[in-house]
Amino acid sequence: MTSQSTRKTILIVDDEMVIRDVLEDFLSSEGYDVVTVSNGHSALNELESDHYDAVLSDLMMPEMTGLELIAEINNRGYKIITIIMTGYGTIETAVAAMKSGAFDYILKPFKMDEVLSVLDRSFERLRLQQENVNLKETLNLYRISETIAKSREVDSIFGTILDATEIETDADYILLYLGDRSMDGFSGLQRFSARVKEQKETIKINVDGLSSILTDDGVFLENDEIKQYFNDLPTVLIPRSLCCVPLKVPGGHLGFLLVVSFTRKIFFREGHRKFLSILGSRAATSYENARLFSELKDTNNELTEANRTIKENFRQTIVGFARAIEQNDPYTRGHSDRVAVFSRLIAEQLDLPLSFVEDITFAGQLHDIGKIGISSQKLNKTGKLNAPEIRMFRKHPEMGKRILEPIPFMRHLISGVYCHHEKYDGTGYPQGLAGDEIPLMGRIIAVADTYDAMTSDRSYRKALNREVAIHELEINSGTQFDPDIVRAFLVALEKSGIEDFNDDGL
Fold first, then answer.
1. What are the C-alpha distances in Å from 359 to residues 206, 340, 374?
2. What is d(CA 232, CA 188) in angstroms, rounded to the nearest whole number?
3. What are the pLDDT digits (tens) for 422-479?
4. How far apart are CA 288 and CA 65, in angstroms?
5. Comparing C-alpha atoms, which of 94, 105, 106, 104 is closest to residue 126?
6. In 227-269, which residue ranges form alpha helices assigned H by DSSP?
7. Cβ-based neighbours of 43, under 8 Å, separated by 6 or more
8. Which of the four CATH numbers 3.90.105.10, 3.40.50.2300, 2.60.120.10, 3.30.450.40 does domain 151-295 have?
9. Fewer CB within a 10 Å sphere, N or C end of the chain?
10. What is the pTM of this model?
């Protein structure tokens, strides 16, 4: 029996019947499938109608020589072993045979063992060549897999799969079918070769029939039975070879990857099936990951929006508390909102980042939230505060800090709430910080808070006019206030055109 792992089909081409018969009998007994023809034209017709692994051709034949036959076989792109048989065993003959593309040659009269040896040697050479091709395919597959794995865009993944399949198989028809995706007539997931583009509208796959024979390893067919997996193919299209592999995901199949040849010289083999199986499996995993990533992204967006809503609601609640405190004191009503506006003007004048501008505006609204624990009677006292009352009032920055600390998305505002009564010379409270030790938020709000306090009516005095308040800021610049902050505020105040506030706000 032949040493080949699978049964090979050999075409014998010779104008001498006796040689054809002898070779057919012998090679058939050795496990080969053998077909014989008498001339080169008949050989080409046979190659167009069926698949062969090797051609043994006589050198000298009427109408078409063996060398001319081999040259035409190569021109037509058949991937097949060609061997010349000749009774003219010269170096020139051997060189001519090799130049024409023959794998080897056999001298007549030949011994049958020599024929087997040449066939085995040729098939082994073909196997080694195929291994090199397989190695290149493996490298290509690795690169393709890496490209697919890095992509999170489903369209990009599909495009890569179809491109790779088209290059590696030269198929006439490629279908990437996804059972859980609206295919819209499979538009966008099909490829057609130039050979069948005119009939592409007539190529319709029997998906249910094909799915019923699909295994985890995939299938490939090379006979007329392929027709049953198509719906109403025109007579001009005869499917010659089909290979189909599943797109496997945990728990089942996502769909399948199918290639079809309507061309006689293109047949799919085990290597194609393995290539497509690996590609399909990687593609299915990447598609599933992309789908899960998309779902996760949508869920994350929903959670982010929900979190934003919660934060905003909480923020409005805290601001509401701060405003509620002021509602009990007609003299300070709207004070926090005005401090927020002044603080924003200063931050913008200093050209600070927008995020900081937004944060200090919020911090300005909350700077006095610690007063929530001070009674309205104390807040509205007209006379001078005694020592215990002063200590109580001085606790409101600490109280504000305690209110904000448990709230993660408000902790970055604490420096404005906690430090707005610190003084630039270190004589302020609650920590006695000086200069740049005082956080920037605290230094800004200190100026905005003091200016609004001076220009608003209080229970213990009437509002100072604008010029007097500005003068107080200037003479206390460098002692109570950061000089840079004071300068920025006065410039910003002048630019803003703000003259006064009413009792109801801005």
1. 63, 10, 26
2. 22
3. 999 999 999 999 999 999 999 999 999 999 989 987 766 788 999 999 999 999 999 9
4. 57
5. 104
6. none
7. 11, 13, 37, 55, 57, 69
8. 3.30.450.40
9. N
10. 0.47
